[in-house]
């Protein structure tokens, strides 16, 4: 409970920049509620003092007053709604930004452990729920509570017994709707989740359509889709059943209450204890209260869920590191590009130890190929230099400084990491290259593209550097994607370049071209290339062979070729493949 309260306080804290609008909105809701509560009393007066006594002037006067109050109520309602929704939207805008910034600050391990769908749902569904809570639910809560209090007050002044009937009805209707909300919400959650599952099955089967058709797997995929579709159908039917029962139960209770009121009220009128106007006022109160009571039930049933949504967002925000750098972080002004691993051990969050005491020194300007069997830990070496993860034990130094002590921004400028499958955003080529330097001059971009030997290709495109690539844009081949990624990396003029399997997805001809060009591209840089393709050995000074998280061989390509170890074996099997053995 106390934690719910502190979540609520923290959530309301997001309204601080729009306090005035929010509070004005709430005050107007109270006015609106007051206006609603006096209308039945005005009806009573109109009936008792005007209609029953056939006093035309009185009846007219009250009709006009009722009209005036209704207009005022409409104006309050409109303004309150506008102010509250606006302030809620502002608050949620800030909250969404905080969550997004926090997601960006999280380290890679966080993304290894968290489903991306979950994060997307936090940013979209949870914030949506909070917006509804801050605007609609709070508004309805204040409106309903105040209206109930005022109505009961006016009713109690007219008739004790009818007020008791109204009071019991209010309690029952709120309870019905609270239960309804509690029962139907989890089913709606399932519906939402299942809709997501259906979307992902559909997306996967559309993106993988070529593979599906090639393997004649249409039936299998249709079967899978049909299963998921059936689940969605069942959840929707469950929701409909509960809605049919609980949604109508309130009307049944209301009908019973009004019947009882007509009976006791009629009796009271006959006995001279109640006026016709008073009975009309009671019945009007019951009708006026109906929707607010239902909303109140939903609000009560929803508070916990909205706070849970808020706490999920707060958790993402709070668990992100405030700053990635320690306070004594340093900057390397003129990097030389020397890299050193000192007894580096690394275990992934899954518990798998993939580096087991790596000692390796790479000199400034040196080009090194790290090769070895799949899963031997090659790519992990690059990810540790890029500081996506921190060593479990040992140290990695750049220019003799522990990389944990180097300011992240500085490290990102010194070290460029080009992943195996570089991500190309659905934007222009210029924006894709300038990702890490959005305000780069076009000349710098062209220079980087020329070094990456992709400028000539870009020049042939209809809109040159302004051509949109990716989905619905120009499709790039594997080699072109690699070169765009290289240009992206080169734009920052890094001293160290880490290439993760740059030729793995390329055909033999494109591979040969890229390997040739890499010689130029990597000039003046320290470069580590991870690959099983030994064609890259031609352009490096040294080869490091890894197996099971250890370095098992190290030396110049010529030395290792003669040594008769794992590298020679790999070379031999590569030649065998070429000769078609
Ligand atoms: N993010 C991760 N979380 C958990 N385990 C991982 C992660 N990335 C890699 N691994 C595991 O660590 C081991 C080493 O992976 P790594 O990618 O470094 O190998 P590699 O030698 O580059 O392999 P390949 O040549 O197949 O790319 C593998 O067994 C892999 O399953």
TrEMBL record:
Membrane topology: Multi-pass membrane protein
InterPro entries, sorted: AAA+_ATPase (IPR003593), ABC1_TM_dom (IPR011527), ABC1_TM_sf (IPR036640), ABC_transporter-like_ATP-bd (IPR003439), ABC_transporter-like_CS (IPR017871), P-loop_NTPase (IPR027417), Type_1_exporter (IPR039421)
Cellular localisation: Cell membrane
Position of the signal peptide: none
SUPFAM superfamilies given in the database record: ABC transporter transmembrane region, P-loop containing nucleoside triphosphate hydrolases
Principal subcellular localisation of the protein: membrane
Coiled-coil ranges (or none): none
A GO CC term assigned to this protein in UniProt: plasma membrane
Domain ABC transmembrane type-1: 23-305
Transmembrane stretches, start-end: 20-43, 63-84, 138-155, 161-180, 244-266, 272-293
GO MF term set: ABC-type oligopeptide transporter activity; ATP binding; ATP hydrolysis activity
Keywords of this entry: ATP-binding, Cell membrane, Membrane, Nucleotide-binding, Transmembrane, Transmembrane helix, Transport
Domain ABC transporter, chain residue ranges per copy: 339-573
ATP-binding listed as a keyword: yes
Listed CDD domains: ABC_6TM_YknU_like
Top-level division of the source organism's lineage: Archaea
PANTHER family in the record: ATP-BINDING CASSETTE SUB-FAMILY B MEMBER 10, MITOCHONDRIAL, ATP-DEPENDENT PERMEASE MDL1, MITOCHONDRIAL
Identification of the protein by name: ABC transporter (ATP-binding protein)-like protein
Source organism of this protein record: Pyrococcus furiosus (strain ATCC 43587 / DSM 3638 / JCM 8422 / Vc1)
